[in-house]
Write a structure and sequence with these properties.
This protein is an all-alpha fold and 110 residues long. It has helices at 3-24, 30-50, 56-79, 85-104.
Length: 110
């Protein structure tokens, strides 16, 4: 499987697991707790496979940058948590950084 597809799966699984953390209420609710554990297991499995062919710094930059943005979008729709303008600008800069890293950095080439 292509390493960037694995990274995408890892990011989505992590966002799902993180979103379920709130619903798990400190692991007091069974179903959301199971989603958390399975989500993180899938995320870290896919992340570890990605590291076989993409440098760890690049993987982590993409993982954390996209994860921050996606979890913020999910939290907005799922939990009604909004962001102020500085937060939105900051996340925009994170996205720009991820794009620059992938388009222009020779380090991202595997």
């Amino acid at each position: 499987m292509h390493p960037y597809l694995l990274l995408g799966i890892a990011i989505v699984a992590e966002v799902i697991a993180t979103s379920a953390l709130r619903a798990a209420e400190g692991f007091a609710r069974l179903v959301p707790s199971i989603v958390v554990v399975i989500g993180y297991a899938v995320a870290f499995l896919c992340l570890s496979l990605t590291l076989k062919s993409i440098p760890v710094g690049i993987v982590y930059a993409i993982w954390s940058g996209l994860g921050i943005v996606l979890i913020s979008v999910v939290a907005y729709f799922l939990y009604g948590q909004s962001l102020d303008l500085p937060a939105i600008i900051g996340m925009g800069l994170i996205l720009v950084g991820v794009v620059v890293l992938n388009l222009f950095s020779k380090s991202a080439v595997h």
